[in-house]
Every structure is written in C-alpha cells, then in structure tokens.
Amino acid sequence: MINRRRLIRLTRKLIRINSENPPGDESQLADFTKNYLRELGLRVKIHAFKEKRSNLLAYWDSPGAKHTLLLTPHLDTVPAGKGWRRGPFSAGISNGRIYGLGATDCKGNLACAMEAITSLIEERKRLDYNLILAATADEECGSGLGLIPLLDKKILRPDAALVLDADDFEIVVAQKGLIHLKVKLEGRRAHGAYPHLGANAIDLAAEVLRELKGRRFAYRRNKYLRPPTVNVGTIKGGDKVNVVADWCEFELDFRFLPGTDAGRVLGALKGILKKRAKKYAVEIQSIQRPYLISESHALVTGLKKAMHSCGVRPRLSGSEGATVISFFQDKGIPAIASGFGSSGCAHTRDEYIKIANLYRGARVLEGFLLDYHWKQFP
Length: 378
Fold this sequence. Notes:
single chain; alpha+beta; Aminopeptidase; Alpha-Beta Plaits; 9-stranded mixed β-sheet; 4-stranded antiparallel β-sheet
C-alpha cells in the first residue's frame, strides 16, 4: 500500500538535494537514490559519462522473465534562478503543495516511482517481467550524458519504456518531429551608396524567408498535435552599415507531424534556396523523427486502466516539443510519457507539486506495474 507520509518525506528529501544543470552534478541525488533502492534489495548501478554526471539504474529482476520494462524520470533540474519567495531547496509545504526546484520536473515523478516499487516489494508482489528504474542525468541539456549514451552503448535495452516526465496524468502518444538547421547565403560586397553594384545577402534572406513562411506544407492531420510550424530563431549578416552585405545566415526550427518525412521538408527549403540564391549552404544541426504509438498498445491501455482504477481521468495528448521519446524510437523501443507534476510549474519560480497528485500518481504506478503483462502486446 502506498504510504502517503513516506512519499511526502521522500519527495522533500529529493528536492533538498541540488542537481541544477548547468552546472551539472547529479551525483549526490544518484547516491541517495542508490542507497534507498539498494536497501529494498534491488540491484543498483551508477553509470557516469563525465565526472559527477551520474545515471542511476536499479534492477528488479524476476526469475524466468523474458521481457523488460523501463521506468525513467530524470535527476537534473534547470538552474533555480532568482526571485523565489520560498527557497528553491526548502521543500516547504503550503496549501497541499510541496514547493521547490524540481518538484514537478522531475523529482515528484522520481519519488512516485520509488514509492510504488517500495510498496510492491513490501507486499511481496511478483512481476512477470524485469523492471528497470533509470534515473538519468542531463535531460535538461539534451541527454548527451544521460539517456542517449545509455541507449547507444546498449546499457539500456528494454522492450518498452514509460518516461516519467509529464504533468497532470497526461499520456503522451504523439510527438512532432524537429529539424534544426543553419542556412548560409553569399552575396556580393559593394559600397552602401551603390547597392546596385552588389548583391545584398540580407535582402536575399528576407526573400527566402518570406517564401518559406508562406509555403503550405501538406501534412496528415493528428488530433493530438497542432499543424506544422517553422520558426526563424536567429539571423545575422553584413559587416557595416555602409557596406552591401555579402553574407547572411539564419537558423530555422521546423516542427512536423507523424506521416511527414524530414527529407520532404528539407527538399522544400532547398527548392526555394535554389530558385532564389546562387550560392548557399545548409548545415543540419539536429533531426528528430516524429513519433506516434497506437492507442491500443499495452503501455497506453495499461496506464489508462490504472488511472481509471484510482479515480483519475487519463488525458491522451501530443507533444509539440521534442522529448526523450524519440531516443527510444531510434532504437525501435515503444515508449510513452506520463507524469504527475503540476501543469505550468516546470522551470518556474516557486515550482510546486500537489500532494494529491503525488499520492494518486504513486498509486497509479503501483497498479500499472502490478497489472502490466507482456501478453497484452498486439
């Protein structure tokens, strides 16, 4: 049975351990979590791909089990910043809320996972699969020292994953893809008094961007996601006010839906550039494919069932931004994201999590883990 008081104490202890990123040091929090779970009898390991950048992996092995389920919250938080009315590491309680940096993102979710596992072990429950809890480093800065190398190096090889990094019991089943890139345009330099003698690369960039922003990309509608978008993130060019700019570069952020290939988006951009510019270069910075999982998948149906059993109305949703779900997609591992934080609190001053959410969240996880069966997979 989920112990409400113990869960509150645990959440407060986690919040009081600083794991801001940057500068990046998850070691103390990982050590605390390691000691806690080791006392339960779990097999525990720490993997660090840089000093003090600890990833905690705890294994609950079931004899004879052939499949593995992964639960994965993250250890790091964003920097606290200034202007807190309550100390970011005070973990104070007021009006049914626990306040502190990471309360919603993501230490409350970590506490729920730890309490759910504790409860199941105390009640001597058995799972018909192996369970791994991976509390990872560096999520707030791209997971380059966390989930990505854990998967790339095959340290983690689960059959399915539940990412614990969301709010208010939403179940993320769809996610937009992204492309980040830089476009460099070359013009012809001239005196600013004689612009007709040159070719202004900034003017050229404006023409390209005007056509790009006016382009309507064909896409397959998704009820959980907004239409595709393109954002001009940065732009710079030229050397001096009285010189015709012979260079300009800008960065673009494309977000596109499941069913659209990144190559189609890039092809449209290059078609515009080819028509408008004589000399250009496109530097790809990052590409993540869009993600979609069936609503009938056992991850989704099992979590919905557990929520209903606890009196929670599940909310299937989509993510407009990139999350770690795409890292699992690259390895062919089905994954969803869910969590119990308070919407609108992540990365804010006076961040908090509702105690009611914590308690229901731990109960949901306990029920989900206990009832989850691999034979449910389609």
